[in-house]
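Page 47, continued from p. 46.
Same chain as before, 323 aa.
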Amino acid sequence: SDAKLAVNANSSGTGAWTLHVADAGTGGRVGATLDAASVQGKPAVTYWDRDLHRVFFARNASADGSGSWTIAPVADGEESSGSYPCPLAVVNGVPMVVLRGRDTPLLLARNTAADGSGAWVTNAVPVVGSSIGWYDLADVAGRPAVAYRTMSGVRFARAANADGTGAWADVSLQEIEQFASLEARVRLVVVAGVPVVSHYDEDNTELRQHSNALPDGTGAWTSSTVHSANNAGLHATVAEIAGLPFHASYQDVESLPGLLVAYRGRAINGPFDATPVIASSVNDFPSGLSLAEVAGFPSVTGYDPVNQDLVRWTNANPTGAVA
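Result:
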């Protein structure tokens, strides 16, 4: 029940891994749904304490994570919040976190200092709909923006002000009748300067993408199907790699093992490669998938619950052209 950070000795991720304990807790269950980001060049993490129902922020004093950790509480959530994310992003130069609040469906927490050493100030995100499921946070043209799942579909909202106060412009991206499980994740990133949202479509059991025409998300949204076979899109994640959208997800097949798949977009709105650029048989759900560009190559990490391992998959080509 620790919050840990793993750091590789090489920029390519091919060297030895060193584990650093950010928070060992005090006998409680810390580290749930951990997220990480670079905050002024130093590794920082956010995570739930499931016993206190509270999100914490920890930042290391050294760039390689070997220094001391400064830990501070961010905000309290409801009792079931520990199963949901607490995404961390640097927005307009300061760290921000979004979480399920104790008295509000979604809560935005903003630190008053660029390095996260200041006070955490919270305000409600005025969401549309009820029963908020998965959600994500990103800096969209200098303003905090969230993509989130409700009882009836997927939505995108962006604050009018850089500190998250004021009105939020909220739009529906797709209506979905079936309610999302925790495996049906929603991700928000910026690709080629515009916001991109990925999610699992329960109605059609496929992986979907929505991209906006403008950097601030006020333009037209284009919706695309990334992949539609065998319940593609569980634990979905998306990242910009070589200036294009890459998607990784778990593909549920009729008999185990399942399949981890990653698809490359040929353009911002697709089409997407019919053959996955990364494909690997996995046991059960590789939960907590994360996708990033590492030394110019696509790299996916995920938790293998059967072997209780953290696993990394990489592609040998910068464009993901070979498996």
